[in-house]
Amino acid sequence: MRTLAKVGLVELEEDEMKAVEAAEEMSDDEARRIIAEASGRGGGDDTQPAAAARSEPEPLVELPPATTIEEGQSFEALYQAAGVRPSPFSAEKLLRLLEGLKVMDPASRKTAVRAMDAADDSWTIEDPIIDAQRKVGALEAGKRRLEETVQEAASKGDADLKAQAEYETQATAEIRKQIADLEALLQREVQQVAEARAKIQAQVEASRQAAARERARLDAEIERLAEITKLFSSTITSQPGSQ
Length: 243
Hints:
The protein is mainly alpha-helical. It has helices spanning 2-6, 14-22, 28-41, 49-54, 75-82, 91-100, 106-119, 126-176, 183-231, 233-238.
């Protein structure tokens, strides 16, 4: 942010400006070099050997379907379970930075981010892009597991319903062979089957609803993370070795 303020890309409050002035000063030539380098890379040539070494994709961990739908699990837990490695500059951090620069037009926001990239050797713009792609993959895998969980619950429910139907038939046939005073017993058995069927159907429906809510939550996060790919799509296509 000190660099962005120096080259005039962001405006700081009075107390923030005092902190900038008290910090180590950057020469005008250095500031112009950084912003020129960032703007130049925005033209499509984003080759960075250091970033290429970090851009090798690693396979995500394939998790088995869950037995129940766990709603509201943190994204960090999902990413960790899927084996997404920590990034030198996370996608969420870049999203927060872009949110702070939302008053700028897209081209200026992109230039501002590249200026920060050029001024800091600890990360490259490739890092949050790859981080976002890996996290989207983890979220998509989470959606697939939700579908598998619902399908498994539905299959089990169908088997249980069939078993209850068979039991109802057998119980009815058996009780109807008995004398009239056992009619009350027949009614109790039928009622138990109906209650069991309703409980099974309610459980399957609850699984479907839980999966729908979780899918909507994951879709919202995927759409949010996908803003990085949209904004830096030229970087992805031109970067050697990127996937």
